[in-house]
Amino acid sequence: MVLTIERTKLVLPGPITKKVLMIPRTITTWQSLSWQEELSQLITDPETLLDLVQLDKTLLPQAKKAAELFPLRTTPSFARRIRPGDINDPLLRQILPIDQELHSPMEYSTDPLAEVHSTVAKGLIHKYEGRVLLVAASQCAINCRYCFRRHFDYAGNTPSRGEWQAALTYIQQNDSIEEVILSGGDPLAISDKQIQWLISEICQIPHITRLRIHTRLPIVLPSRMTSGLLDILSQHRLQSVLVVHCNHAQEIDEEVSNALQAIAQAGITLLNQTVLLRGINDDANSLTTLSKRLFSARALPYYLHLLDKVNGASHFNVEESDAIDLHRQLLASLPGYLVPKLVKEVPDKPSKVPINY
After folding, report:
1. Residue 153 confidence (pLDDT)
2. In this predicted model, what pLDDT tens digit does every residue of 338-355 receive, in sequence order?
3. Disulfide engineering: 329 pairs with which of 95, 171, 230, 284, CB 3.0-4.6 Å?
């Protein structure tokens, strides 16, 4: 099976015209066919994935069973970065359903962050002082097997335009809120037209000063970062922060690096958060290399998260004592600005909890 997607070299406008970047071509309508075409080619069948990465079909029964609980989804772009024939490939382990997902210890749950208790309107989570999270999309381009929202009720928390009005009204009436966070799913999985409308609505609320977008698409679907989208994300009155999610340096190929640099060159603050995952990045060399590669692509390492204890993900857990030891090694080998904050999230706490030692 051969999956190919064409790219066109494009010189981006404005302050980034000095450098030619591999950004997909845009068209005159709000849609960009290149990234939408790749979304239409998502790999959702375990057998297709195993064929693509040249792995033994003996893995298929357990993969199909685990995928019944949480579907397999990955982009062709992400799958192409997996080393063929390597069952321990760090990218493959993030997306391949396995039988360990069928069993969870007692301390794991379907809502490890107790988000249901912080939902104040359909699709609106108000957990922390001064900021709210708006669920802007119900799906991602990739289903990470450790996702803390793998059991989230997206059907009941993905507003239509009309239903978004209740969330926007809540924000409008609470002038202590300064920042709106777009999350999901993945907020960049919706169309340019929808994103532009939503941002324009948020911009009309006077006390909102910052817009933050949490997205994995620049990593798993770099073709999404078109010049048209970058204009939408940067040409408004709010301070823009884009937080990507990358766990391993192997995820950052040339196309991803170019997409990240284009985001930064558009004047958008670019941060990364990583989840510490057993068998994927739980060694100092992997984390050190990741920080360096992120920074070379102009993304600043921001958070290193302990695993949220969601049902189906216990095999990824790294003990806190081991995480502390790894973080000490990072401090010893990297400049401070390349060392992400080691944190965990605890329900009902007023912020993410720093792991001090």
Report:
1. 67
2. 999 999 999 888 889 999
3. 284
Q: Please give the Cα distance from 9 to 211 (Å, whole number).
A: 29
Which of the listed residues 76, 102, 128 is the one where a domain comes to its end? 102
In three-state secondary structure terms, 357 is: coil
HSE-up of residue 74 (Cα within 13 Å, Cβ side): 28
For 96, the domain range is 33-102
Q: Is 58 helix (H, G, I), strand (E, B) or coil?
A: helix
What CATH number is associated with residue 252? 3.20.20.70
Pair of tokens at residue 138: 């119900």
**Residue 185 shares a structural domain with residue 92:** no
Sequence-distant (≥ 6) Cβ neighbours of residue 196 within 8 angstroms: 30, 232
pTM above 0.85, yes or no: yes
Q: Give the E-state strand segments of 193-320 in sequence order.
A: 210-215, 239-245, 269-275, 300-305
Query: Of 51, 80, 102, which closes a domain?
Result: 102
In a domain, 20, yes or no: no
Q: Which residues pair with residue 344 across a beta bridge?
A: 353
- Cα separation, 319 vs 126, in Å, equals 29
Note whether residue 107 is domain-resident: no
Query: 74 near 143, Cβ under 8 Å?
Result: yes
353 DSSP β-pair partners: 344
